[in-house]
Amino acid sequence: MSVIDILMIATFTAPEQIRPNPQAMLWLLPLTAAIAVVYKATKLPTITVGVFLKEAAILFGSIVVFIIITALALYALTWLISV
Amino acid sequence: MARPSRENHAQFLLVGLLSWLLPGAGYFVLKEKKRAIIIFATISLTLCAGLYIGSIGVIDLVGPAPLYVKAAQVMNPPIVLVLSHHTAGGGYPVYGWPNEIGQIYTMVSGLLNLLCIVNAVSLAHLRKTEPVGE
User: Fold this and answer.
1) pTM of the model
2) Where are the domains of chain A?
């Protein structure tokens, strides 16, 4: 086993350092993209590059916008309760 | 409408089993190569991202993790079962946000794989039961 192999395996045996700050919320973006891509890959009757990318991008944007709206609504609710 | 025969049931089972063993393999058998490649790449990357963020310690099928986490993670390809065998002794501890995010990524990849398994079997079923020309 080469040094590169050992280093590659090592990256999967120790967790990354992620601090609980607002920037950590950006980890939801790759996950949202994965969900949009797989969902559209299962639902489109025929897959062409243009249509697939457009549909996946629309779904990705829709999910992100919905999350932002939900976050703002929850923030407003928290503010109203705490005032 | 044509009825699914015993032979067709074997094919549905094969498609489902292949989809679980390797994401997208069920679609590949059904000659949906583009779909198979997209699904394989996306689910594999999501699973690898989860294992990279939280380490293989996030796969904890015998530990104190909630049942819904284990149920979602076990829907991933069988490599997860091999990893859980290695992590069973608690040799790869992971806490806090890396654990949470790693678990979420591996759970979502498992649930996406389940979606693809069900969809591939459904596609195989539709092709066998729909008469030609409709």
Assistant:
1) 0.88
2) 19-82
